[in-house]
């Protein structure tokens, strides 16, 4: 079981074989580069400066021989080692190489996979795909040949026979486009290279091709994939977006060269100088990698901004796929928070199309003395547009941002503000408007009704206030400043259903949040509130009014996005209202006349017992079913 690797390089003399291969961690490359100080090292681009890589052959080989011929000597020499010792002797075969080196690995029994042609090609493609020098593998190919080659004339079409032939096949055909001047690489070349690098069938949305100079020289290429993987969020911790190369040789994709919020990008970094003779953990903390990371983040943000300015429609595609990741970055990374926030786009009451308004756009359209950025969260724009919370703001001419991404509410809670303006969730707390009217007189006037409503709805509400939000709706249900909006509560409930079975603490937290009492706001100009106030003051509230107020509270909860605590009570109240209006008593029930199903016969029961004995479970145990 031998594997041979040969080249037509400069070869080594007997002395060089001893110095370079007979001493652990002796690197011929580093010595060669030292001698070339002052010359054009960019042309050389050598790798292997650490001297320990060669000895990895003994992980898969019991013995290794290195035959080498240098122009500095007439004879060809062979270095041989079984890891314990080595010998150097004149090659008895004579000069078979002309010039160069041939390495022969005598593989261990458990390393036979390295004799597989496909495996060798995979290794070359992974680690040396972009090496300038051609790397060829002795490969088998099938060719069609004529079965009757000696016949001069054959009227009927000859059958073609297939013959296996062996020949050298170059594996590293992809060129390292990142080594070229970025201005000289076309978009189509980047598309082709991206597909080769990632095996993606779609072209990227955009790319960034740059060169880093200064303390460390490196080149980088970043790509934005057209679509986010369906399983991205489940596998985000294991994503390996950036490949690290050193002088075009692949080193690893395990290093965290990008923060998690940029893990959707794909690309590579090719550095000229990295300490590869250290552990992965040490290298991850190395100063050079930190410099590269800062450069990549800057180039990524520049790429996003340029895309936003040059192609707004394509930028909408980008945000539809990756906008949540930018918000995640703004939450997690304060150093990039303002830049990331400026890159976001939202729908609003000014333009309900998704990803159209930046926060700068919103502020430019703000009203005089407006101190807040008003927003409303919901599962869709249509849901938000039907919400009672937006009535007064829209009537007064204020613009409202429409947040429909599940992460939006968490995002704004972590952002102190933007360009001097604070975010204001119009579904929570008190609404501070520049032109607020004084409600003291109205509060005094409606105090009897407020007290009655608080007593009637004591299980649900903390207090009753005069609303600044409403124009056409009679009431609104508002969370406290530090409470959960209806949209946020629905999201947490959905998450809790998946997790609370495994996490009792999560269920306790959710239950605590669900039980928080809300604020009931009343519209003093609505006829229902005016009539109710009069009834309360006259002490002539109808007996069934309590039930109707409960029903109005529940319907408003639904409209405000809050889940109902007791759906059965709600449906009973709706049914009761219908019964009353069409004159049917609550005591009158449906006439039920249903025939009961027959019990099993003795024969069927015995058959079931026999079936149990065979232990067949068709749904849960398909293996036993197949065996039977």
Automatic annotation (TrEMBL):
Chaperone as UniProt keyword: yes
InterPro entries: HATPase_C_sf, HSP90_C, Hsp90_fam, Hsp90_N, Ribosomal_Su5_D2-typ_SF
Binding sites annotated in the UniProt record for ATP: 7, 12, 20, 26-28, 49-54, 101, 280
Similarity section: Belongs to the heat shock protein 90 family.
PANTHER family membership: HEAT SHOCK PROTEIN 90 FAMILY MEMBER (PTHR11528)
NCBIfam families membership: PRK05218.1
Entry protein name: TNF receptor-associated protein 1, mitochondrial
């Amino acid at each position: 079981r031998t594997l041979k690797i040969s080249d037509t390089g400069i070869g080594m003399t007997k002395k060089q074989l001893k110095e370079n291969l007979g001493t652990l961690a002796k690197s011929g490359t580093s010595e060669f580069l030292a001698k070339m100080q002052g010359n054009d090292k960019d042309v050389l681009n050598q790798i292997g400066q650490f001297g320990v890589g060669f000895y990895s052959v003994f992980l898969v080989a019991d013995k290794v021989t290195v035959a080498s011929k240098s122009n500095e000597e007439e004879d060809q020499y062979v270095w041989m080692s079984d890891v314990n010792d080595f010998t150097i002797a004149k090659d008895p075969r004579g000069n078979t190489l002309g010039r160069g080196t041939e390495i022969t690995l005598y593989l261990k029994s458990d390393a036979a996979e390295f004799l597989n042609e496909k495996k060798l090609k995979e290794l070359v493609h992974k680690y040396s795909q972009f090496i300038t020098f051609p790397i060829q593998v002795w490969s088998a190919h099938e060719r069609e040949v004529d079965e009757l080659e000696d016949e001069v004339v054959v009227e009927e079409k000859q059958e073609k026979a297939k013959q296996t032939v062996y020949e050298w096949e170059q594996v590293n055909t992809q060129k390292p486009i990142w080594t070229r001047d970025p201005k000289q690489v076309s978009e189509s070349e980047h598309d082709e290279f991206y597909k080769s690098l990632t095996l993606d069938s779609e072209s990227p949305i955009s790319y960034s091709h740059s060169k880093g100079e200064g303390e460390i020289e490196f080149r980088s290429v970043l790509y934005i994939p057209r679509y986010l993987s369906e399983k991205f969020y489940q596998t985000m911790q294991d994503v390996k977006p950036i490949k690290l190369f050193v002088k075009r040789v692949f080193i690893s994709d395990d290093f965290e060269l990008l923060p998690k919020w940029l893990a959707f990008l794909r690309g590579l970094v090719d550095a000229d100088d990295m300490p590869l003779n250290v552990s992965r953990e040490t290298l991850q903390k190395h100063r050079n990698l930190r410099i590269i990371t800062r450069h990549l983040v800057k180039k990524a943000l520049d790429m996003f901004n340029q895309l936003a300015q040059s192609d707004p429609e394509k930028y909408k595609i980008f945000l539809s796929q990756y906008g949540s990741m930018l918000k995640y970055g703004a939450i997690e990374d304060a150093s990039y928070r303002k830049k990331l926030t400026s890159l976001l786009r939202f729908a609003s009451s000014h333009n309900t199309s998704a990803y159209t308004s930046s926060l700068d756009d919103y502020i430019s359209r703000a009203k005089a003395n407006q101190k807040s950025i008003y927003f409303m969260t919901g599962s869709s724009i249509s849901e938000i547009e039907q919400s009672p919370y937006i009535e007064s703001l829209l009537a007064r001419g204020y613009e409202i941002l429409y947040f429909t991404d599940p992460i939006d509410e968490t995002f704004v809670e972590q952002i102190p503000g933007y360009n001097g303006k604070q975010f204001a969730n119009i579904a929570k707390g008190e609404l501070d408007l520049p032109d607020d009217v004084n409600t003291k007189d109205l509060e005094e006037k409606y105090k009897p009704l407020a007290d009655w409503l608080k007593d009637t709805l004591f299980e649900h509400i903390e207090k009753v206030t005069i609303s600044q939000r409403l124009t056409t709706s009679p009431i609104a249900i508002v969370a406290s400043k530090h409470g959960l909006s209806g949209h946020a509560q629905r999201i947490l409930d959905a998450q809790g259903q998946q997790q609370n079975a495994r996490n009792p603490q999560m269920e306790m937290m959710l239950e605590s949040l669900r039980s928080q009492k809300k604020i009931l706001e009343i519209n003093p100009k609505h006829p229902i509130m005016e009539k109710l106030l009069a009834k309360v003051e006259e002490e002539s509230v109808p007996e069934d009014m309590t039930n109707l107020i409960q029903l109005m509270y529940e319907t408003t909860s639904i409209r405000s996005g809050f889940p109902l605590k007791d759906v059965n009570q709600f449906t009973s109240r709706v049914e009761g209202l219908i019964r009353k209006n069409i004159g049917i008593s609550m005591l009158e029930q449906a006439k039920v006349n249903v025939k009961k199903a027959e019990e099993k016969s003795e024969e069927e029961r015995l058959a079931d017992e026999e079936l149990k004995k065979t232990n067949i479970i068709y749904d849960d145990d398909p293996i036993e079913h197949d065996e039977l």
